[in-house]
Amino acid sequence: MMNLVGMSLEEMEEFIRSLGKERYRARQLFRWVYKKGASDFELMTDLSKSFREELSGIARIGSIREVRRLTSRDGSATKFLLELEDGERVESVLIRDEDRRTVCLSCQVGCPLGCKFCATGKMGFKRNLTAGEILEQLLHIRKVLWREGEEVTNVVFMGMGEPFLNYEQVMKAVRLIRHEMGIALGARRITLSTAGIVPGMERLSKEGVPIGLAISLNAADDATRTELMPINSRYPIKVLIKVAEGFSRIYKRRITFEYVLIYRVNDSPEHAHRLAEILKGIPCKVNLIPYNPIPDVPFERPPDERILKFQEVLLSRNYTATLRDSKGRDIQAACGQLRASTRGA
Ligand code: SF4
Predict the structure, then answer these.
(1) Contacts of 9 (CB under 8 A, 6+ apart)
(2) Ligand 1: which residue has its CA nearest to atom 4?
(3) Which part of the chain has CATH 1.10.150.530?
(4) Which of 71, 87, 173, 301 could be disulfide-bonded to 134 (CB atoms 3.0-4.6 Å)?
(5) pLDDT tens-digit readout, 76-89
(6) Ligand 1 centroid, distance to 103 Cα (angstroms)
(7) Contact in structure between 219 and 267 (CB atoms under 8 Å)
(8) pTM summary value
(9) Are strands 154-157 and 190-194 parallel, antiparallel or unpaired?
């Protein structure tokens, strides 16, 4: 059965043509699926009853199933465990921050990059998600928000997986998220987070899609970074920073550098100074994230005074350095903690 979620307008037009219907029907369908979030053909009252019946016999609108939902004690984050059609599971997170409602999407089941501090990396790689599966996460959470009278304001690709290792499907999802007849979120409200896949960053620089780029940096020297993130041996810091600089120039956007602070690994004032050096001249902001301990990983969160000292060094060197005390820590929805290996949970 054809899944309509994930289809572009052109694909829907093709589909409608194959049924011998008028072209404008595709636009109606597109709006129902993406703008109005209909999950049942019966709701599509501007389509004839017989057409609705025909559609329900050959197509469906998504298939993702919510397995579990956990909300943090302070209500700022809700983590969704979602099951895909083949039984694989991914996690997506809704983050409530003042008037922002940000949905954090997964783009792969697991992740092949194996960063040492990351729960997803520890579960290995299963498969890429399709654009439809990426969008289904968003449509599902948007519906939850709608019931609360709220709307999605931002989307980040920071869940499970590395977006640039699933480039085509992620970009197709981004185009659909931006589409004015559908979800209609502006490029400035979409951010893609990468571990530093240089070819992907270069490709995105040429797409003419000025979405935000966040780079998970986590160290200012190659030895430490390679230890934490093995991908660094392929795309070392110098190359990464150069491409980031080009990206920010082309799109006139600040780059966000994410930096997970790990006790006695990358959190000393010297590390902060080194970071300030390597980012010199790049329009950027640094997002500091104190490490959230996960089972079976020997890293620790630094004491608060070390965290604040690190931030102070960056501020004194005129960087914007925010401290993100991860929302949803108590439900393991914080950065690097998503892990859907909870079959049967
Ligand atoms: S931090 Fe990101 S890139 Fe690294 S293993 Fe985890 S999900 Fe993959």
Answers:
(1) 26, 27, 30, 179, 181
(2) 115
(3) 2-60
(4) 173
(5) 999 999 999 999 99
(6) 18
(7) no
(8) 0.94
(9) parallel
